[in-house]
Amino acid sequence: MFVVFILEFSFMCNMIMAKDFAVQLNVTTSAVCVCSLRLCLVKCEVFLLFCTEHGAEDITILKDGLAFLSTGLKYPGLPSFSDEPGKLYLLDLLHPRPSPLELQIEGKLDLSSFNPHGISVYINETDESVYLFVVNHPQHKSQVEIFRLDEEDTLVHLKTITHPLLHSVNDIVAVGVESFYATNDHAFPSDVLHFLTILLGLPWCDVVYYSPEEVKVAASGFLSANGINISPDKRYIYVSDIVDHEIDVLERQEDKELVYIKSVAVGSLCDNIEVDHRTGDLWMGCHPNPIKMYMFDPEDPPGSEVIQIKNIHSGQPVVSQKYVDDGHVIMASSVAAPYEGKLLVGSVFHKALCCDLK
C-alpha cells in the first residue's frame, strides 16, 4: 500500500506538471479527440504482427534502414501479457511491405530467461561489423549482452557484462566494440527507497561508462536516468531524466566523463531517445499518464505521446508534440525512431506503429 501511495502521489504531480507545460506550448493533450490529433500530426499504420503484440520497448535504426526491435520486456510493477521470454527482431524499412524477422541467437546465453530492455548498435569502422548491445534483466537482475550480427537473421552472443555500478540499467549507448554508457534508473534496489528518493526530489541516479579497462560513474545528479543516446558527431550524450521531464545534454570528455551542458524541458515523461542521423533531431516515446501503467485498467489504458526536439544545441530548441493517443491505438509508448519520412513507435508492453511523417 505504501508503494502504491508513493506511485500515485508522485505520478499525479508529474501528470499535472506535464499538462501545464502542454498548455504553455499550445499543444493538445490526450483528453482531446484522438482523430483530430492524428490528422494534424502524423498518419500511422499499425503493425499487428505477433512479435510486437507484447511490446517493442526499444527500437534503433541503422543508416541503411535496418531496424532492431527489443520485445517482450517484463518489468516489476508493469503489465505483461506473455509468459514467453523476450526476443529481438529485425525490420527492413526499405522493403515496400516491411515485416519483422526474428533474430536467431547463437551462443551460451540462457534464452529461457532473456528479458531485453534498452538496445544500441555499434558499427566497427574497420570491417563494418554490426554489434548489438542489449540490456538484459534475467530474474530481474541487470546485465549487458553484446552480440555480433553474423548473417541476415543471426546474432552471435559474444559477452555478458555485469558490474556493481551497473545495478539498475535501463538504457545503453555503445561507443566501441566493448564500451558503452548506461543509465541507472534506480538509486537503490528497493522500490520503496527508490520512490522515496523521487518523492523527496533526491537526484541520486547516474550514468556509468564501461570498457574492459575502466568502469566509472560518468555523470550523476538524475532523479531517474532513463533513455540515452549520442549526437551524430559523437560529441554529446543525451539523457532523459524521466521524472524531471527533461532531456539533459552532456559533453564527452577525454577521460570518458560527461560534463553537463544544459537541460531542455519536454513537459512529459520521456522514455527512450532516438536521434535522426541526418538532422540531429531528437525523438522520444513518452508517457503522458504513467500512473495508468502501474494501475493498469484495459478499459482506461495508459496513453502514448511522441515528442521531437529540433536544434537542441541552439539557444532556442524547438519542442513539439508529433503524435498522441489515449491508449486505444497504442498503450505506453516508449520509443520513436525516425527514418526517411517514416516513424516507428514502440511500446513497453503493447504493440508497435509504423507512421508516415508529414
UniProtKB/TrEMBL annotation:
Identify the enzyme class: hydrolase
Q: Which GO terms describe its molecular function?
A: arylesterase activity; metal ion binding
Cofactor field: Ca(2+)
- Domain of life, source organism: Eukaryota
Query: Which residues of this UniProt protein bind Ca(2+)?
Result: E57, D58, I119, N170, D171, N226, D271, N272
**Residues in the active site?**
H117
Enzyme Commission number(s) from the entry: 3.1.1.2
Catalytic activity line of the entry: a phenyl acetate + H2O = a phenol + acetate + H(+)
Which keywords fit this entry according to its UniProt record?
A: Calcium, Disulfide bond, Glycoprotein, Hydrolase, Metal-binding, Signal
Q: How does the cofactor bind to this protein, according to its record?
A: Binds 2 calcium ions per subunit.
Q: Return the InterPro entries for the record.
A: 6-blade_b-propeller_TolB-like (IPR011042), Arylesterase (IPR002640), Serum_paraoxonase/arylesterase (IPR051288)
Family to which this protein belongs: Belongs to the paraoxonase family.
> PANTHER family, alphabetically?
PARAOXONASE, PARAOXONASE-RELATED
Write the protein's name. Answer: Paraoxonase
